[in-house]
From TrEMBL:
Coiled coil: none annotated. Belongs to the short-chain dehydrogenases/reductases (SDR) family. It comes from Rhodobacter calidifons. It comes from the Bacteria. Keywords: Oxidoreductase. Pfam families: adh_short_C2 (PF13561). InterPro entries: KR_dom, NAD(P)-bd_dom_sf, SDR_fam. This is SDR family oxidoreductase. Residues 13-192 form the Ketoreductase domain.
Amino acid sequence: MTEGATFPDLRGASVFITGGGSGIGAALTEAFLRQGAKVAFCQRSDATPFCDAMEAATGNRPLFLPCDISVTDQLQLTLATAAKVHGDITVLVNNAANDTRHETLKTDQAFWDWSMAVNLRSYFFACQSVIPGMKAAGGGSIINFSSISFMMADKGYAAYITANAGIVGLTRTLAREFGPDRIRVNAIAPGWVLTERQKELWVTPEALSAHLARQCLPDPIQPEDMAGAVLFLASNASRMMTSQTLVLDGGFISS
């Protein structure tokens, strides 16, 4: 990972990242570890090798807690465990999501409900779980990952797009409700980030070339390109910033 800015107030901070062992989440976990934060993260698959690699690279080992975020009581227990080990969570990054493609006319209620459980409901209940601890700590920062998909009038994954629009609404209402407690709530809307999942499923030379032609900036977006903005939103450097959505898409939706 390229060296970036240092945020001294993040040293020792209790940070929790959903989906923090792969893709964008892995880049965020590493970034916070390099700041000296106490990082806990969850995902369904075993992340022990990733934790070993992070400890070797940064000298700071993350706490991995297996969890299916679509199961609310499991998610709540996972967050409580992280807070017990690291202290009240003062930085929450809701990052985990699933953008499985689906046809609207073939989508049944079970798939819709599952997609909402992963992509929106888990965000709400993760926020609900950490806010009391943030209040006790005198404040905190919640960063919700959305997507530019709902800004593009795109097609092929209506449930995911709907959830990402909902994330921005959730961000704004929680920012208003808990601003008096000095809890800041912001969102990040990435463009097409070239995670391994994206490369395996959808990236082709033709598709990538067409996408980059619409960006203002010519370079493909990498997972680590999300880290700087997240660290900024987590730190006191952005202490008067809340209820905002940062678009990190290389200028795609402006073209």
